[in-house]
């Protein structure tokens, strides 16, 4: 797969299936992917996603990044 996608992980770093709300084709740009995660991180956290990793194709761009709110 090309484009920008998120890998969803639980607290131990195990990969989780993508939530239903995720665009199956990924995102056309890094900015689109980051904007989407900024808008939906609370829902993902409520669904059991503890952290995410941003990918461009198969390349890890950054992560894992916790979805837990800063204290």
Written overview of the protein:
- With 71 residues, this protein is α+β, with helices and mostly antiparallel strands.
- It is built from 1 helix and 4 strands, in the order E-E-H-E-E.
- The chain has one helix at 30-46, and strands spanning 4-9, 15-16, 51-56, 59-66.
- Strands 2-1-3-4 form a 4-stranded antiparallel beta sheet, covered by helices on one side.
- Strand 1 (4-9) and strand 2 form a beta hairpin.
- The chain is globular and about 30 Å long.
- The model has no long low-confidence stretch (mean pLDDT 90).
What's the layout of helices and strands?
Layout: E1 4-9, E2 15-16, H1 30-46, E3 51-56, E4 59-66
Antiparallel strand pairs: 1-2, 1-3, 3-4
Task: Please provide a brief summary of the model.
With 71 residues, this protein is of the alpha+beta class.
List keywords for this structure.
single chain, 71 residues, alpha+beta, 4-stranded antiparallel sheet, 4 strands, 24% helix, globular
The radius of gyration is 11 Å
What share of residues are in beta strands? 25-35%
Distance separating the two termini: 36 Å
Shape: globular
What is the SS-derived class? Answer: alpha+beta
**Mean pLDDT, all residues:** 90
């Amino acid at each position: 797969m090309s484009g920008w996608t998120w890998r969803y992980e639980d607290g131990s770093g195990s990969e989780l299936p993508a939530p239903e709300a995720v665009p199956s084709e990924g995102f056309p740009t890094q900015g689109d992917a980051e904007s989407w995660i900024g808008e939906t991180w609370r829902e993902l956290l409520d669904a059991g996603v503890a952290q995410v990793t941003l990918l461009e194709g198969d390349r890890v761009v950054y992560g894992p990044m916790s979805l837990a709110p800063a204290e």
